Amino acid sequence: MNKNTLKEDKTVIMSDKYIGESGVQGGKVIGEHIVLGSLIFGIPFLIMGLIGLFMLFVFGTIAANTANIILMLLLTVIGLLMIIGAYNIYCIKHVKK
Predict the structure, then answer these.
(1) Domain range holding 65?
(2) How many CB atoms lie within 10 A of CB 15?
(3) Residue 49 CB coordination number (10 Å)
(4) Would 6 be classed as within a structural domain?
(5) Most buried of 12, 34, 45, 81 (most Cβ within 10 A)?
(6) What string of DSSP letters covers 28-94?
(7) Residue 15 falls within a domain, yes or no?
(8) Cα Rg, the chain, nearest whole Å
(9) Per-residue pLDDT tens for 16-25?
(10) What is the pLDDT of residue 1?
(11) How far is Cα 41 from Cα 73, in angstroms, rounded to an integer?
């Protein structure tokens, strides 16, 4: 192998400049997937929690134990937080500076 290289042949060094930029692009792709995943899981959690709370208040004696009440509240809160988080990530990602 010839170990003598030309001074202009710096392809490896030139590609190292773009590692930071490719990392930023990878972060944007991961952010898009997080937003999509949060919406896919957040909306059903919110719907299940709201339906459960509605059933609790309409048919109170059927599901009126503490474990069910806590589960319904947790589903509602987790769903809301996931939707709010997805919305915040989406808005921050698309803000033009």
Answers:
(1) 33-93
(2) 10
(3) 20
(4) no
(5) 45
(6) HHHHHHHHHHHHHHHHHHHHHHHHHHHHHHHSTTTS-SHHHHHHHHHHHHHHHHHHHHHHHHHHHHT
(7) no
(8) 25
(9) 556 667 777 7
(10) 47
(11) 16
Provide the domain count of the chain.
1
Please give the model's pTM, rounded to 2 decimal places.
0.67
CA 63 to chain centre: 32
In a domain, 46, yes or no: yes
Provide the 10 A C-beta neighbour count for residue 34. 14
- Stretches where the chain sits below pLDDT 70 are 1-20, 61-63, 96-97
> Residue 3 falls within a domain, yes or no?
no
Rounded CA-CA distance 28/90 in Å is 10
Which residues fall within 8 angstroms of residue 41, CB to CB, at 6 or more apart?
A: 82
